[in-house]
Amino acid sequence: MCGIVGYIGKKYNALNVLIEGLERLEYRGYDSAGIAYIDNNKLNIIKEKGKIKNLKSKINFDIKSNLGIGHTRWATHGIANKENSHPHKVGKITIVHNGIIENYEQLKENLKNSVNFKSETDTEVACALLNKLYEETNNMNETLIMFQKQVKGAYAMGIICDDDYNTMYAIKNKSPLIIGTGKDENYIASDVPAILKFTNKYIILDDGEFAKINSDEITCYKGNNIIKKEEKIFEGTAEDIEKNGYEHFMLKEINEQPEVFKKTVSEYISNGIDSLIEKMPDFSKYKNIKIVACGSAMHAGCIGKNLIEEFANIPVDVEIASEFRYKKLFIDKETLVILISQSGETADTLAALEIAKEKGCDTLGIINVYGSSIARNSDVVLYTKAGSEIAVATTKAYFAQVALLSLIALKIANSNNLVKSDELKEILSEMRNLPIKIQNLLDRKNEFKNIAEKIYKNNDIFFIGRDVDYSLSMEGSLKLKEISYINSQAYAAGELKHGTISLIEDGTPVISIVTKESIAEKTISNIKEVKSRGANVILVTTEKLDKQSDFYDYKIVVPNTHKLLQPLLAIVPLQLLSYEIAKLRDCNIDKPKNLAKSVTVE
Ligand code: F6R
After folding, report:
1. pLDDT value at 452 more than 80
2. Average pLDDT over the chain, rounded to whole?
3. Partners of 529 in the beta sheet?
4. Strand partners, 38
5. For residues 180 and 193, what is the distance between their CA atoms, to the nearest angstrom?
6. How far apart are the first and last CA of the chain?
7. Is 2 a catalytic residue?
8. Are 332 and 357 in contact (CB under 8 A)?
9. Domain boundaries, the chain
10. Which of 165, 292, 311, 483 could pair with 352 in a Cys bridge, judged by C-beta atoms 3.0 to 4.6 Å apart?
11. Which atom of ligand 1 is the closest one to the Cα of 395?
12. Residue 206: DSSP 8-state
């Protein structure tokens, strides 16, 4: 949802830092991009519609600048055009902004007689307000304090004032913002990878705070009070965010899953069940669990529900965060609320966390980004160790979420004496073997490519399955539609004949997932129903359930494992199938249209 970056210092040319940063942040939006920079004591603005490369082609990198701010946009207010692009400048104030100013219409009404607005954006209104407040106070600190009082909504902003080209300001509420630190140079950015090429040290600005940033000094404020902030070190390397020879980040990230699995689960299984007992939180006081998340993270939650209910025998509900926050809730101290989020910044999930806390529930975050807002505010955090995920469509982070949820199911099942020791041994040994089995699937990429070639021209593709296979279908379908733009729907296999089966025509691909033994025959009956109506059936099943038959056209057989872990194997071919289909359709795989990776607006 928009990315911002800023630089002040003499070590690098601000123009290079801004473009490098914006390229790293492009996953947050790519409707337009722009920069403001100081050259010879004059502020210049360049902005262009579309990707960063359009902006880059307009920049003269021979200019040496010591101060600049940049923005890559995911349009919210106003269409994606040059006028609506950031930075916006009104009077002496220039800003870049990630977030949404909720009361901008009312603010605009108050300002319209004195300002000639050029764009339709809420950001230009915020900029105009800052300028008015600065005209009244002639003091940036007072301006920012008054701004915080008048503005409602989410914002992370980088600000330059024409009266002082030796300072950059940053202000934050509900949108992520970090301040990168260096020697005689400092940065701002929406996330750390944006500036990782230059520094791995940073401080996190919290909601309601602002900062005055010079090249050799950073002063953070809450109101009039100066606050001390802890400097953090980012543990990843710049290499983590390179493609490392892969054609796309998505493919690289899918291929990282064996390693991600090892990293995510190792501390909980390194010493057998003892480490699980010791390292996983104690869940014994909860009578039920509510999982709240968005998109793929919510789909991971659905698998969590299937596994926890089956193995641990306690009820689990999965809620879409944007629904959870506005509905009547039946939760209390006996409910554990689990928030799942790769970014840890998703606005709806963050709001759901606050609501759960207000209701007195304990909260557990399953989060990928260290120090993110949801991680900081949850009572307990389990980190998915997926590393930086750059492709907009999540793969490895979803994978790690499912891995942690299966460990939670195991931990509760074990505390409730629901797993026998032999089965426990088998599960732990399967966990150690799983990376090899995942690798086996990754090595079969060509097999999935061949199937992709058979179906990539279709405009409608269905996914069906029951129980955990339905949860997998939902994720397979989302992955396919978001990167290939094929209309795809996931259905509980038994539900199809209640309406949707009328859409099945000769040759309609139906990707049918049959990995759960106890309901395999039921799903197979549903597959036969679509097959007899002309569907082109792609069966995804396990070695154990595999049998020669005529109810499918193509078959993907995944290795056997314990049923607690089976979804982790079944998802891999679905990811690769989507990837290959999107590639054949020549889609922008890492940056699908209209999307952004971190959804920090509601
Ligand atoms: C789909 C995808 C999204 C995210 C969703 C939640 O591939 O990536 O559906 O899963 O936007 O994002 P996080 O996990 O950051 O809260």
Report:
1. yes
2. 94
3. none
4. 43
5. 10
6. 10
7. yes
8. no
9. 3-237, 243-440, 444-602
10. 292
11. 7
12. P
Check for a shared fold between 243-440 and 444-602.
yes
How far apart are the CA of 599 and the centre of ligand 1, in A? Answer: 8
pLDDT of 521-577, one tens digit each? 999 999 999 999 999 999 999 999 998 888 999 999 999 999 999 999 999 999 999
Q: How far is the CA of 341 from the centre of ligand 1 (A)?
A: 7
Contact residues for 130 (Cβ-Cβ < 8 A; gap 6+): 90, 93, 95, 143, 144, 147, 159
Using the mean position of ligand 1's atoms as its centre, give its distance from the Cα of residue 601 in Å: 13
CA dist., res. 2 & res. 31, Å (int) = 9
**% the chain with pLDDT above 70:** 100
Residue with tokens 């916006």: 88
- Ligand 1 probe mutation, 190, 191, 342, 591, most atoms within 8 A of CB: 342
Q: And the tokens for 11? A: 């070590």
Q: Which residues contact 31 (CB under 8 A, 6 or more apart)?
A: 49, 50, 73, 74, 75, 80
What atom of ligand 1 comes closest to residue 297's alpha carbon?
10
Lowest mean pLDDT among 79-93, 293-307, 353-367, 389-403: 79-93
pLDDT at residue 91, rounded to an integer: 97
Here the tokens at position 512 are 């049918």
Which residues, judged by CB distance below 6 Å to any ligand atom, belong to the binding site of ligand 1?
294-297, 341-343, 346, 349, 393-394, 478, 482, 598-599
Q: Is the peptide bond before 87 cis (omega within 30 degrees of 0)?
A: yes
Has residue 208 got a pLDDT over 90? Answer: yes
pLDDT at 241 over 80: no
Q: Please, are residues 194 and 72 in contact by the beta-carbon 8 Å criterion?
A: no
Cβ neighbours of 11 (radius 10 Å): 14
User: How confident is the model at residue 80, as a pLDDT?
Assistant: 81
CATH superfamily of 243-440: Glucose-6-phosphate isomerase like protein; domain 1 (3.40.50.10490)
Please report the pLDDT score of residue 239 as a whole number: 66
Provide the whole-model pTM: 0.81
Rounded Cα distance between 224 and 287, Å, is: 46
Active-site residue flag, 597: yes
In ligand 1, which atom is closest to the CA atom of 369?
A: 15
Percent of the chain exceeding pLDDT 90 equals 87
Distance 477 CA to ligand 1 centre (A): 14
**Tokens 């509760």 belong to which residue?**
412
CATH of domain 3-237: 3.60.20.10
Q: Which residue has a Cα nearest atom 7 of ligand 1?
A: 393
Sheet holding 509-514, edge to edge: 487-492, 460-465, 509-514, 536-542, 554-558
Give dist(CA 434, CA 540) in Å, integer.
Answer: 18
CATH class, 444-602 region? alpha beta
